[in-house]
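Example record

The entry below shows one chain as it appears in the dataset: sequence first, then structure tokens.
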Amino acid sequence: MVAIGVVGSTVGDGTAIASPTLQLSIRADGRQAHANDGGSPETLRVADDDAAGQKNGKLTGDLTLLSRAAQQGGPEAAIATARSRDLATKSDRVQVVVESTGAERTGTREAIQSAGGDVEGEYGNLVQALVPVGALDQVASHPSVQYVRRPLHGVPDAVAGEGVAASGAAVWQAGGRSGAGAKIAVIDFGFTNYQARQAAGDLPANLITKDLCGGSFSAAGGEHGTAVGEIVYEMAPGAQLYLICVDTDVDLGLAKDYAKTNGINVIAHSASWFNTSRGDGTGTASSPNATVADAKNSGIIWVNSAGNRAQQHWSGTFSDTDGNGLHNFNPPGEPSDNGNTVFLSTNQEICAFLRWDAWPTTNIDYDLRITTSVGGTLVAQSATLQSGSQPPTESICYTNKTGTSQSFAISIKQTNASTSPLLDLFVTPGPDLEWQVAAGSVTEPGSSPNAMAVGAVCWQNNRLEDYSGRGPTIDGRIKPDIAGQSVVSSGTYGPWISCPANANGTGNFSFNGTSAAAPHVGGAAALVKAAFPSFTASQIQSFLEGHALDLGTPGKDTSFGAGVLALGALTDPGAGLVPGPSDQASVSISDATVAEPTSGTTTVNLSVSLSAPSAQTVTVQYATANGVAPNGAAGSSACGRGVDYQVTNGVLTFNPSETTKSVPVVICGGSITPPAETFTVSLSAPTGGAVLGAHPAATVTIPAANVPPCRTTLSAAVPAGSGALPVVSQFGCNIGDHIAINPGAPTEEREIITGFGSLLIDQRTKYPHSAGEAVVRLAITDDLWRPIAPPEDDTDKPRKETEEERQQRRATNRSNRDDEHTEGNVTAVTCDADPPTITIANRDGLVDIHLLNDAMPSCASARVGDYLEADGEKQNEQAYDASDVTLHRDGERVR
């Protein structure tokens, strides 16, 4: 999905601004680079403070800053400031949108032209233009001008497709329903390599293109639109497909007019437009919401992504419990926190958007700030004046040019407020916010009652994606309206690999996001329109919602909407379809609990059921997967140390009239007693007209047995304070075992034993204690060999790699290598040996890693307790010649 907001001058996920001669610095993600040309953080702080003190009621805060820079330092200084604020420039001019006081734009055009500006485009009461940086105040002061702002631009969110079968579209196509007679348009921000995708058969030869983005239709960085078009074509191959490229909100209105003129029935728009309305479908006559409303009134169903902001949204009312003028994000009773923290790597950019419920114009004034978490240095600020005639919004982008990866705090400053309206804060493209509120995270125009908003589930298991926008809307309506299939294969983005347990696409190179979900629903809408030509936009939406497979809370809910897209069976291709509840058979699998035997094996049979008998053969794939740490069970092809179950996968076949089958899984026995563990068995890729049901994945629980675990007690005299317990020996535990370290406090820290003789642990226990004797009880908690990261604390630091991410990375690494691979925890480092050697502990015991050639620099970086992965050649069970070594510490790569 692509998010749109007042941020940079780009097209889609990365082409240049509409005019090809604009001087932009374009980053790899496609947006204009924030180069901080305007000066050092201190210089920016002074400039931002100056802008905050000289607000202009007819210019946004960033344009006010630009105007002051032109007055004080001339055009060159102003252009440098513009580039540091992601403003598009050409020579000594900056690209802006000028809002007219009424629908008549003549006076506005005259104001622009008399100031030496050029008009680029017009829609509604909006005029897009290039204006000299020194003439911004002149244009703003004209009586025909209501407001001057930067244009709205695209920011990418997205992070044979499987969604065709999963949605039931394959059955329709097989029955002769391909969408022929319908017209569907993809409105996006670029269509890079679309001709190559045509040649590959992923896009039709007869597609129609419309360039409203100034010649950047197929420029580099616009892959997002191409991928969206691929899905639409897969779903409705017989429909006439249009690809319309836009850049700004002005272009979006013109694209809608083009669709009306050309009789287009369906629009698929995988985009968000931040800070453009209250979130209830209202807005100015030229707003994206008004554009969507006009489309629906003209008989066009507008299918829109719900947004990827569930973890990048916060909502609440202003609270200043510490009296410093800044909002306190912390809940009552917790320590004061004026910043919503994000961690930015060097050169990473983030954009923040703040709106408050005082629409359409307000004198309630808030400012948006970004400061360093350490030291509180102000690095960026949005300080637009709200004096009664301005919208209740602020927006800002910042790139970390400090040279250090570090945490930053996004804060809200109250300048003038007589009431406390609801505040909504969004960030894009990430990272996720420290303080999150998923509710109300559906973005505009998906939140409009005139748009069909689409959330995202993984096509394989119908699991709701963590990022998928949730309702309700600010006026209490249920959004999204439906959920669509995501994490699918794409000619543009690559093949599907898996549906990650955390559902955020980690390790996947497929098309992920509500951007992928929306075109599945858009393509389905084209199929329905072709089958029922007389259907209105509302009837098409009702049909799709009525046939959806209900998930989550029974009935329409604020996570899945009406459920996941499921078109239903094609009952009579000759006479047409009958609207009504879905009559597709769905397949589900039941959870199970099985006791682990003390020796040998046992088998658990998981029940798989078809919701209704089918007249044709139905097949479904199944596969096991390890559970989530810290108590995830581990699988392997054969039982052995650290193996809880035998990995299995295959295909179940339901013959006509059959409705039940089972999946057998072998559970391995063991004498070591772990806590309760889990693993999963997931269904995928049903055929024969069936779809995945409401329970496509089973959780198998291996409960903890009532056998006392192995324990040993160690004592040591320690001084008072907080430090590592000086443990010197242990008995009864084996290398690779997990232990729980309980110093008598309510919480336990989990560690792993990595050596013989002495107790060597990754992170030595730290806790407050009194002087004297300290006793630690050690208990084996898991016989699976793998490291477990210690609990997170409250300090600002990078997010550590999760167990799921680590397992996915290792699996990917192995699949990409032809040579041998080994890994384990470092127990000894001997750099002066010949060759230098690092000793690791894994399930085979102690292994010496001989560092050869390019692997040699790793020796100086390695420490006992690090996690090492090596590629090379195995010499024997205890020796390995490594040509490449990777080291990880606390879940973070150190080399």
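Notes for this example: DSSP finds 14 helices and 46 strands in the chain. The two ends are 33 Å apart (CA to CA).
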